[in-house]
Amino acid sequence: MDTSQISAHLREYQYCHRRDFRELITVEPGEEQSFRAYWSNLVRDEAFKEYTHRERRILRYRLLPSGQLQIDRNAAFKSSVTYAIKYRQGVNHLSYCEEGFIEHSLLQKLLATDLAVIGPHLGEQTYTIDIHQFRVRADVQSSSPTTSGIHQDGLDWVFMHFVAECNTVPVVSEVFTTQAQESRVLNLAMEQFLETIVIDDRRLYHRASDVRPQVDSAPAWRDVLLVSLRILPTDKEAPPL
Are strands 172-176 and 92-93 parallel, antiparallel or unpaired? Predict the structure, then answer.
């Protein structure tokens, strides 16, 4: 399946899962290892520390109607939705991604592939692209939630790329057509490097199960890369570059 076929699948079903997404990208020797290494230096997400142990960094671009990408160094993140969990609402001042990660050839190839997939679904507006490195940790004392139940994130499109895991019970990713449990249309654990789920966040809902250690005597963690797109309502409302 190529990018045009994935795009067509999204038009019909509003979501797509590809276990072999990495086959769309030429991964050179050493790229996977050096790419994964950037998850070892993430920063604790203090806004969610009472709910889960999550570490993250953010990278932002603006996608102009011309197709040009402009980097946005503003790391202040505010979700347009409110989650039904215990967390600090409002602006979340995140740590920006490391320069080496921003410039990493595999990241740039992955982003180009995502944009090739989603390009036919985008209008003539300016979009903000938020790229999140996430690591969710757990230990013998407790599990760590991955998401806030069945939810939407107030976005247009979301790419969920699996990166790595260590000593975790399989984390199950689910997609729903409504907030009702019985509306589930996808239920699986991602395990392959760059295995990907894409969803239309305006129409569908998603959830992932907790990170839990498989062996109690060792730490557990799961790494993912989220690439999201949403229309900037107006240039006036958009944060400055």
Answer: unpaired
- Helix H, strand E, coil C: the string for 50-61 is CCCCEEEEEEEE
Phi then psi for 120, rounded to 5 degrees?
Answer: -65, -15
User: Running DSSP on this structure, what letter comes out for residue 171?
Assistant: P
Is the alpha carbon torsion for 6, 37, 102, 171 positive or negative?
positive
| Its pTM surpasses 0.70 | yes
Q: Quote the Cα angle for 143-149-151, to 5°.
A: 145
Q: Which residue has the tokens 């806030």?
A: 148
Phi, psi of 8 (to 5 degrees): -65, -40
For 191-223, what is each residue's pLDDT tens digit?
Answer: 999 999 999 999 999 999 999 999 987 889 999
CA–CA gap between residue 203 and residue 177 (Å, rounded): 7
